[in-house]
Structure formats: C-alpha cells, structure tokens
Amino acid sequence: MLSEIRRSVRNQWVVLAMTGELDLGSCPVLRQAVVAEVADGHNHLVIDLSGVDFIDSAGLGSVVGALRRVRSHDGHLLLVCSEQRVLRVFQMCDLDRVFTFHVDVDSAVGTPVRV
Amino acid sequence: MSGIVELRVPAVPEYLQMVRSVVGAAASIGVNLKPERVSDLRLAVSEAATNAMEAHGLSGVEDRVVIRCDLSASQVEVEVADCGSGFDPDSLPPLPDVDSPDRLRHESGLGVSLMYHLTDETIVESHGGGTAVRLIVHFGTD
C-alpha cells in the first residue's frame, strides 16, 4: 500500500515523492495529488518513485494519466526511478519510451523548464 | 515440497498487497525459484487479482475472489478465479503504439499481456459465470 506522498518544490518543479507499492488500491492517491497540483497551476511535476518497490499496470496507468494531464496544460512530467524492478515494468510495456527518467531528484529538478 | 495455499478475499483493492505477499512467500518455500521469478509471479498475480476485483465491481458481484497457490515438485501454479461476467482474452483491443499521442488516453489494458509475459504459461478460461486465470512458473527456468 502506498503509505504517503511527500510534496516539495525545487526550482520550478513540484516534486511528489512516493513510497510503498503502487497498485489499484494506492494509485488514486497519486491521481488525486496530480489533479490537485494541476488545478493549482503547477504543471511541471516530478514524480519520485525512488521509494516505490512495486508497481503494476494500474500503477503505470496512473502515471500515464499524470503525463496526459500535465501535457494537456502545457506542462512537463519527469520520473525519478532507479529501482530496476520498477523500471523493468515500464520497459515491458514500452512505456520507458514515453517517459523521461532521472536517477535522482537533483538531476530531475536541474532540468530547465521549457515554457 | 508441495501444497496448496488458498485465499478468499473481498473484491477490494486493499487486499492486493496481501495477495502478493502470500503468493510470494508461498512460492519461495522450499524451492529454487530465483527472486526475480518470484517478483514476476507477484506482479502477474497482482494483474490477475486486479482484473478479478474489477470484474466483480463491474458485475455487482459480492462474492470473494479466490486465489489458489499450488506448489509441486516442478512448478508453482496460481489460479485466480472470479465470478464476474467474463471476457474473451482473444478479442482484447490492442493499445495504440507508444509513439502515438492516443496512447496516453489509455490508462489500462496492459494486465493480460503482462501476465503472458511474466509467466511460463498463462491460461485464461472465461465464460458468463466468471473467469479463472492460471499462472504457471516452472522451476529451473530463467
């Protein structure tokens, strides 16, 4: 179960750091967080999956939904993930070609926001 | 080592983690299944159980989803059975290519293909009275 999302702001990026397992039971937490950020005008998001040790297709779906939402508001989404088990699920679904991955948050928030 | 572990869980997603944990632990008992293969099985079971729970939700069924984990000398087999309205696994619409902007409109539809990818055998038997998915991992295969 996803235990929490920690929110921080670094440079022009809102970082949502997740912990736990991302599945059908926990993905609504991420979905709601992203909806709230975009509604508040924060369209440049980093989802930090470093603390996520399991993800399934429902979890992937919520990340896909996050990307669609920020893009529809001219925003950007970066993912932080170094856990091979999690990365592999993206790769098996070819979604590693859709997202931009960073190995740590410092790297992600160092990306210039392209407006 | 052989035996059967059976779970009957309510069709609510809060039970998914427990299902994965029990199946993962059962598959690790007394056999030489690599941790990566146990992880693959946990993910495949999560996909099957998710589909089962959603099928119950869509059909308004209040029965429990049944997960049976059967260990034999040569393989582990997990059956996930629901009482939903069933589906035809051969008629699932393909997802748009990941290079297509339309791909982002689809937040679901990956579960069945993942099950096939993660196991040595995935057998789906579905009819109007429910679906049973059998996920099989052979010992000694990478």
Question: Could you name the key traits of this structure?
Answer:
heterodimer; A: 115 residues; alpha/beta; Transcription Regulator spoIIAA; 5-stranded mixed sheet; 4 helices; 5 strands; globular; B: 142 residues; alpha+beta; Heat Shock Protein 90; 5-stranded antiparallel sheet; 32% helix
What does this molecule look like?
The complex is a heterodimer of chains A (115) and B (142). Chain A has 4 helices and 5 strands; from the N terminus they run ββαβαβαβα. With 115 residues, chain A is α/β, with parallel strands linked by helices. Chain A has a single domain, classed as STAS domain (Transcription Regulator spoIIAA). A 5-stranded mixed beta sheet of chain A has the order 1-2-3-4-5. Chain B is globular. Chain B contains 3 helices and 5 strands. The mean pLDDT of chain B is 88. In chain B, strands 1-2-3-5-4 form a 5-stranded antiparallel beta sheet, with helices on one face. The two termini of chain B are 20 Å apart. The interface between A and B is medium-sized, with 26 and 28 residues.
In short:
The complex is a heterodimer of chains A (115) and B (142). By secondary structure, chain A is α/β, with parallel strands linked by helices. Chain A has 4 helices and 5 strands, in the order E-E-H-E-H-E-H-E-H.
